[in-house]
Each structure stands twice: as C-alpha cells, then as structure tokens.
Amino acid sequence: MLDTAAFTDLRSYIKRRVAKAKYYVGSTGYDVLLNDVAIKSDGTVRVQLPIAPNASSSVTVTRVELYNSAGDRWAYRNCSITISTGQVGVLFWFDIKIEEEEE
C-alpha cells in the first residue's frame, strides 16, 4: 500500500517535470507552452494549455500530446476539436490521477 507521502511526491514530480504540449492539425504539429499545472483538491494533477491556431479558416485539431522536460512524450489524446474562423481558441487539459489498485 502506498502511503500519503508517496502520492504527494508523485504528484509533485509530475507537476515539476511536465514541460510542454503539442497539438496537431492534420499531420502538422504545433508546440505550445502550458497555461497552468496545478494539483487539485482531490489530488488530480491538471495540465492546461491553450490551443489557438493562427489560421484564416476553420481547423480541426486531431491530437494533443504532453511532454516532459527531457522532450519525452508522456501522454496523448486523439480528438476532433473544430476551431471556427474568428474563434480565438480553446482551453484543453489533461487530468492525471494517481491511484493504487489492489490485486
């Protein structure tokens, strides 16, 4: 069984190491800086990032990836987010929960 200190350390490690994100429109990837990385009251680590393509027409974001400070991909989510012409962008987030499972 993990103790409370282990969960606290793991959440802090994630918060400290997560560094950037990338989103894809078609096969083209765009790096983006993170808006916020916070540990919520329920222990979830929430990583927020803005997706704001510089496009003259509507675009569809097909994938969002999360990277650590060494440039290694930690997580990804396939999606279909359409951003219309004139829309500034969207706020996207990853919620990372650490749970222990007994067998």
User: Tally the helices: what do you get?
Assistant: 1
Binned, the helix content reads 10-25%
Structural class from helices and strands? Answer: mainly beta
Largest sheet: 4 strands, antiparallel
| Spans where pLDDT lies below 50 across 5 or more residues | none
> What is the distance, rounded to the nearest whole angstrom, between the alpha carbons of the first and last residues?
11 Å
- As laid out across the biggest beta sheet, the strand order is 2-1-5-6
Strand percentage lies at over 45%
Radius of gyration, CA atoms, in whole angstroms: 16 Å
Labels describing this entry:
103 residues; mainly beta; four-stranded antiparallel beta sheet; three-stranded antiparallel beta sheet; 1 helix; elongated
Task: Explain what the structure shows.
- The protein has 103 residues and is mainly β.
- It is built from one helix and seven strands; from the N terminus they run H-E-E-E-E-E-E-E.
- 14% of the residues lie in helices and 51% in strands.
- A four-stranded antiparallel β-sheet has the order 2-1-5-6. A three-stranded antiparallel β-sheet has the order 3-4-7, covered by helices on one side.
- The radius of gyration is 16 Å and the shape is elongated.
- The model has no long low-confidence stretch (mean pLDDT 94).
